[in-house]
Write a structure and sequence with these properties.
It is a single chain. With 330 residues, the protein is mainly α. The protein has helices at 5-9, 14-29, 32-70, 76-100, 107-131, 137-160, 168-189, 197-200, 209-216, 234-263, 268-310, and strands spanning 321-322, 328-329. The longest helix is centred in the C-terminal third of the chain and has 43 residues, at 268-310.
Amino acid sequence: MESIQPLLNGAGSETIQSQIRVPLVLTTLLPVGLMGAFAAIMLAAAIACHNSYLHSWGSIFIQDVIMPIRQRPFDPQKHVRYLKMSILGVGVFIYVFSLVFQQSEYIFLFMAITGSIFVGGSGAVIIGGLYWKRGTTGAAWSAMITGSTIAVGGIVVQQSVPHFPINGQMFWGLAMLVSSIVYVTVSLLGRKPSTDMDRILHRGQYALTEEDHAVREQPLKGWKVMAMTKEFTRGDRFIYVATYGWTLFWLVVFISGTVYNMTHDVSDAPWMEFWKLYMWLYLIVAIVVTIWFTIGGVKNVKEMIGALKTMRRDHSDSGYVQSNDTERLR
């Protein structure tokens, strides 16, 4: 810790210091080769993450904003072209935004407030739209606009007012709360929609036989508490149990460490040894999982390419949900 403290002291604000503390500690825990491998993995993860974000936000803009306003679907060629243009627009916005934005709080809090631009209102829209007959299109738009306005307003305020008392996580919670209230209020004040919920959710006469069978299937003997049915293979059961076991193991470690730290005077050295062991354990598990996922990923890509060559496209599926032959629900 003494070796990195001078670097932290020269980093600037306390917020910046907190963001670079872990990377600096890792440079002392990991040898040169593993440090390079870790950096390469993080770069690959960042590329994959941004790739997903670009595709998600670009397609959301076309599907959930442009198409409802347009009120009729694009032909397939134009649809793909506009999706590409939207994705490019998201990339340009990210670049310009990064030039003017100044990081003023912890990264996780910043991620919370930026994520709430969409997530702040989407929860009320998705849950209300799928499970409440009274939900309306106007309520959905109102909730999304409310959530995004609160989130964007929070970003602007935090950039303008130093040490603003409401952080990103609080703005996220505020956006969800107010958006939910707006969704319910506007739905109750608006005209009752004629939405066939059974058709949207594949219930009743629209139920899918294979899915209904899987839901009604009884859990395997001895696995009832984990709701494993006959569709679980032996490998599925191993992965399922291992995932829960890994999480429960670290929960026990967290509780035990918290209790021990509160009842004993623990110096920095034992904690550094713990984090060193923690990093090595995660590194070994990550290597095994990466090799496993790579093999499975290559296999799945081959299967996907084969399916794309033979599957029949339904070009009429443009993203609209139709309640009947004449009305389109957005």
